[in-house]
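Obj: model holo form, ligand = uridine-5'-diphosphate.
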Amino acid sequence: MPYARVLLKLSGEALMGKKPYGIDPAIVQSIAADVSKVVSNGTQLAIVVGGGNIFRGLKGSAAGMDRATADYVGMLATIMNAITLQDGLERAGIATRVQTAIEMKEVAEPYIRRRAIRHLEKKRVVVFGGGCGTPFFTTDTTAALRAAEINADVVFKATKVDGVYDKDPERFSDAVRYENLTYQEVLRREIAVMDSTAIALCKDNNIPIVVFNLFEPGNISKAVAGESVGSRIGNSS
Ligand code: UDP
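Output (holo structure tokens):
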């Protein structure tokens, strides 16, 4: 396998599937089936979950809420997703631990880097909830940060589309998908795949990013096996 340790970023929207809000149990089931394959092949997997299916800080602040307060609500939303995902993974027989960046010790472990690595070595999936624990950040940045902290070989960004396009594929029928592109290109052209802080962190730590469609069953295990399932962002294109 080309990657021994993978950081998978699941956005809240991805967990929502076709539902207007919350989590689609069918999506969680399909993720669990795929994750099960990945882990049984010996790949270590950590997951960062988003919260956009429940609450986004920017939306709250646009409605007049204090931005930092709204961001804390967003972070709490990611913890709900983390616990729900843990439930789905454990029902599929996958040993899973949730670690939160905001301490909530009755429901999950606090984030302890060395402990997270130990779980991974023991073939447990670790789900990171609560983002970085600080407002004005995103869970994409959290994914890049945790990937660097746990020495992940790659960040998988599983989304609703099958890669990075030169323009919005939902609005433009002539949109072209990139196979490979560099961090520099993403930053310079402000391609909206992950926020610039996340891209810059991956660039500084030389962690490649693979962007693919989560709704295509089996894509996570294909990406782990190094198959071309979407777009790859790295140092050279
Ligand atoms: N958030 C935050 N700090 C973090 C991570 C997340 O303040 O380190 C808040 C922010 O308000 C964000 C919300 O949590 O809007 C949900 O996360 P995000 O929007 O990244 O979720 P996704 O788009 O992946 O569903």
